Structures are given as structure tokens and as C-alpha cells.
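Hi R.,

Here's the chain you asked about this morning:
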Amino acid sequence: MTIAMFKNSINNYIIIACLALPCAACNVPALTQRAANKATPAGYNNDTPADTANTARVQWKQFFTDPYLAVLIDSALNSNQELNITLREIEISQAEIQARKGEYLPFLSARAGAGIEKSPRYTNIGALEESTEIVPDKERPEPLPDYQAGLYATWEIDIWHKLRNAKKAAVLRYLATVEGKNFMVTNLIAEIANSYYELLALDNQLAIVKQNIEIQNNAFKIVKMQKDAARVTELAVRRFEAQVLNTKSIQYDIEQKITETENKLNFLLGRYPRPIPRNMQGFEAMVPDVVHAGLPSQLLANRPDIRQAEQDLAAAKLDVAVAKARFYPSFGISASVGYRAFNPSYLLKTPESLLYSLTGDLTAPLINRNAIKATYYTASAKQLQAVYNYERVILNAYVEVANQLAKISNLGKSYGLKSQQVQALSRSVNISNALFQSTRADYMEVLLTQRDALEARFELIETKKSQMNALVNVYHALGGGW
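And the predicted structure, written out as C-alpha cells:
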């Protein structure tokens, strides 16, 4: 018999057996499934013209040109513990694929054994053995030894693609873990870049505070001289002294924030605390690059988290198919071939000691299918969860990009106005000091002007930091960096 003839005979046997089964074996509960909505708006807002150019396609090394920042990101991609944990998850998913693949292939095992058996004399088996001569004129050994060696094979024929679909689902989940790793890379790069720009902003704020302390100390000395000349009271001296002390306390608050931000970066880099090399100059002169947001539909291809949700959705659909196939009959084949004898010298004697078997079995659930139904309903519910999660991820991606694009635009306008405010207040400080020395201005005007100027410069630095963070965040939101 050829292999093709054997397969045909098996298929005919399965069809006849399935027709003979009760309808309940093939009656699958009906479920309502839902397709995912992938539709996205034509643009992120009405003011932005549609453009197919997309910043997300730029690699992070070309997007972040600061050499100190590039070194930090590169080190984190090699040493970050959370990223390395995710890489091990990918290895686990690869192993799961091999396990699922092996389930629909034949299982072949070798077995060898030895034993001894004594049957009671007054039983049908004992009576037959007593009257049987295995070798003429030679009594049967009692008790009877048993030696055997052979090959055994089992194979479940995957009629309804239950096992193949389980393997495909494992492949899709492996691809989802890869996309999850890519999304983590994007998040890690964005977090490091934002922390780096925060560190630069703190450095500039610290420099501003030190400059103000020097200015306030000079003003404090002048006030004390004027007090000695009876031109101001002791109240003015104490107010100026309190202002100097308050500014010095701000200095130590900023130094603490610098330490915490450096340690946060060191943690992301997977190392113990140490100073972070950085370019402390030129932060205020940084200008965010022009961002090409592209089309919202491009998010489906560029965002790793969207692709991850898409792979999870496809795997969930296959899980429903696998659960559904459990209602149908399954067909298995088992075979064995080997040798068995009561004496090792007869073990390889052919055909007397030869044994072989070939069995086919068909099984189908008939009664008490609650466990199968529960698995089926669970798989269906998880498929609906995957649909809603996929739609949520797409919506979240669109909202993130729209928010960051608006933020970049508004921060640019705000920074221009704050720059003008700082220039005006800086001139006011010089004017107030000169008027105070000529007794044409009250000391409170000097204090308030210095405080306003300090706050305005702080806000200018914060706005610049927000600009750079928005640039990083829109690059992240578009799906770049991985």
C-alpha cells in the first residue's frame, strides 16, 4: 500500500466515523465576533497640511545629535535590566513555538524492559501456560521472564488544524513580544532624552541662581552701607538678607534635583550612581527640529505598540479557532514494532519474537462539555478584549501625536513672549538698583523686581525644557527610535 492510498483510507474512515457520531459532538455554540476598526482621521488637525514625510523613520542616532546623549542611549540599550528581561521573554516565546510545533508532529520513542511474572495455576491463563510447550520436550520456565525492546509511535492527525492554529498563535505572540521590545526601546530612548534635557535645564537654573545670589549680595552690601549712612532702616537690611538666604536655599533644592536626575539616568543605564557627562552650554540656544508628523494612517506601520496589539489580536482569533476545534472529533494513530521473548537468546528471533501493532482511534466529546465550552467562551471574550485594546491603542497613538504637535506649536509662541519678558525684567533690575542707590526707588521695588526676574528666567528655562521634551515625545508618539 502506498502512502497516498493509506492517507485516502484514513480520510474515508474519518468521514464515515464523523457521520456516525451524534450531532451533539459537532454542535458548536454560536458566538458574536467583532472586527477591529482601523479607520483614522485624514490629519492630526485642520491647520496641518497632509504630508507623507514622517520623522518616525529617522533613526535615533540621526535624530539626537548631542554626542553625550547618544552615548547614554547606546549604553542603556546594552545594559538596561528591564530591556534585558524583555529579551528573555522573546526567547521564551521562541521556545513556545517549538513546543507547539512538536505537538502536531509524530511522537517516536524507544523502550526496552525486563520483568518476571507468575500466573496462578488454577486460572485460565495459568492452565493454558501449564499445558503449553514453548520448545518441544522442554518445560516452560516458572516464573516466566519477560524481555522486550521496541519502537513506539503516536500521532494525532490534525484534521481541524487545531494544533497548527495553536502553533500559528504562538508565532504571532512571539512577533508581539518582538514589537513589545521595540516599543520598550522607544520608551527607553524617550525617557533618557527627557531626563537628559531636564538635567541641562537644572544646570542652567543653578547657574541663574548663582548669578542672582551674587547680584543680591552686592545689593545687600549697598543696603548695609546705606543703613550705616542712615538712609534706610534696619527693616530694609533684614528684607535684603532674607532674600539672599531664600535664593541660597533654592540653590540647594536644585542641586538635590540634579543628583536625583543623574541617579535616574544611571538607573536607566543599569549602573550605580556616578556623574553624568553633558554639555552644559547652549541649552537656551537649542531650537527644536522641524517635525514631520506624516499621516495618521502611518501610525499603524510605525508604532510598535500598535503592531504588538495587532499581533495579539490575530493570535486571539486563532485561539478561538483552536477552542472551537475541541468540539470536533480527533483522530489518533498509534503504532509499535519490536521484539519480545522469555529468554534473551530468543529476543531477536524473527518472526517468532517479532511484535507490531497499528491502531487508529476516533474520540469526540458527547456529554459534559462544560470545560470545552468554558474554554471556548473565554477565548471569544479575550478576542473581543484584543479588538477593543487594538482600537484603544490606535486612538491613544493619534491623541498623543495631536497633543504633542499642538504643544510644540504653543510652546514656541510662549517661549518668544517669555524671552521678551526676561529681557524687560533684566533691564528693570538694573534700573531699580540705580534708582535705589539714588534714593529714587523704595527697597521693596528692588526686591520685587529681582524676584520677578528670577522667576521669569526660571520659567524661560522650564519652557525650553518643555520644548525639547515635546520634541522627544512627538518622536516617541510617531513610533520612532526603535
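Confidence is low (pLDDT under 50) at residues 13-25.

Let me know if you need anything else.
M.
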